[in-house]
């Protein structure tokens, strides 16, 4: 067992070898185009979804004028004079609900192994079937601790910092197009800060004391997205997400939407299932499997620094795409037969 743990530490803290050196500009440009496609597609989806949702809500409730502005005005007046409470309400309640509602559905599958319609999309087919209940309880306790005692106080600090720089709870909503522009900027900032802070925690001097806790799950599940040491949760989980709205002086509505999207995205990245019509989790799942590959979110900086070379030689890389059919990618792109079979 001690030898096994030691090997795990060495794998997790290892830096990429000479085979992981960056490739030519063509490879990097390909990765940039893929990231731009992901961000652009997400923005177009949000735009279309937002317009459609607004139209249906206005039709259903018979609302006139700007539905979202009217809704925000009512909420703003309800909290009038209590901006701090409004900010905390928006940035904690809705993101927390997003995280736990999505993970409640995933945990139902993780703990029961049903329905089989979902489990057939498991990436590491021989793992978490079902998940270890003792290990899961420990992870949930850590996640709750991080949310209450780390995320909560950080959101308070963010509020006072944003209030010092501007007015995050202003009476006027930002335009929808400006909000989408901000979301794209947030995603770019998250990629940069998460990549470098994540690699920092893989340094031999830090990995064993901090980041190894997160890597106890070599086959991750959704809830372990924020299963981490408190220091790592501050620097690598929270900071890359909260810094964008602070820098841009964003409105509470945009900040809340971004926090929800970030938590949903990291849940999908850790969920362990490559489900139809959802972003591919193959990239980050491979990081948990191999430790020293795929440190970023979109893969642009991994391509730049050559930290995805081994990943791009695997079947997981071939499966790293949007699944647009009901056939699991482990069936349409099966693993290569093992030697001797």
From TrEMBL:
Regions that span the bilayer: 35-57, 84-109, 143-164, 176-196
Domain spans labelled Fatty acid hydroxylase: 184-307
InterPro entries, per database record: Fatty_acid_hydroxylase, Sterol_Desaturase_Related
Cellular compartment(s): Membrane
One GO MF term attached to the UniProt entry: iron ion binding
Presence of keyword Transcription regulation: no
GO cellular component labels: membrane
BP GO annotations: lipid biosynthetic process
Assigned keywords, A-Z: Membrane, Transmembrane, Transmembrane helix
Database matches in Pfam families: FA_hydroxylase
Residue segments, region Disordered: 1-26
Protein name: Fatty acid hydroxylase domain-containing protein 2
Organism (species): Lates japonicus
Lineage of origin: Eukaryota, Metazoa, Chordata, Craniata, Vertebrata
């Amino acid at each position: 067992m001690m030898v096994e743990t030691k090997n795990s530490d060495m794998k997790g803290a290892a830096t990429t070898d000479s085979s992981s050196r960056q490739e030519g500009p063509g490879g990097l440009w390909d990765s940039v185009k893929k990231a731009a496609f992901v961000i652009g597609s997400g923005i177009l989806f949000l735009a279309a979804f937002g317009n459609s949702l607004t139209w249906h809500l206005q039709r259903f409730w018979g609302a006139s004028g700007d539905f979202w502005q009217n809704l925000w005005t009512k909420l703003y007046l309800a909290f009038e004079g209590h901006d701090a409470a409004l900010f905390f309400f928006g940035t904690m309640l809705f993101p927390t609900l997003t995280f736990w509602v999505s993970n409640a559905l995933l945990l139902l599958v993780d703990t029961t192994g049903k329905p089989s319609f979902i489990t057939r999309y498991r990436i590491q087919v021989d793992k978490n079937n079902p998940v270890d209940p003792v290990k899961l309880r420990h992870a949930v306790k850590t996640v709750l601790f991080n949310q209450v005692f780390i995320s909560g106080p950080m959101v308070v600090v963010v509020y006072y910092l944003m209030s010092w720089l501007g007015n995050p709870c202003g009476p006027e909503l930002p335009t929808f197009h400006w909000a989408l522009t901000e979301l794209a900027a947030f995603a770019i900032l998250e990629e940069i800060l998460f990549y470098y802070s994540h690699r920092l925690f893989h340094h031999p001097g830090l990995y064993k004391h901090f980041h190894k806790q997160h890597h106890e799950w070599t086959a991750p599940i959704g809830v372990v997205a924020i299963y981490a040491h408190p220091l790592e949760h501050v620097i690598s989980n929270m900071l890359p997400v909260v810094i964008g709205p602070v820098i841009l002086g964003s409105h509470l509505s945009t900040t809340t939407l971004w926090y929800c999207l970030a938590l949903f995205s990291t849940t999908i990245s850790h969920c362990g299932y490559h489900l139809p019509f959802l972003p591919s989790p193959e990239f980050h799942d491979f990081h948990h499997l191999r430790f020293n590959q795929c440190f970023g979110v979109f893969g642009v900086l991994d391509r730049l620094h050559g930290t995805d070379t081994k990943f791009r030689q695997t079947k997981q890389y071939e499966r790293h795409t949007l699944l647009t059919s009901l056939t699991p990618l482990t069936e349409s792109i099966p693993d290569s037969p093992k030697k001797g079979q």
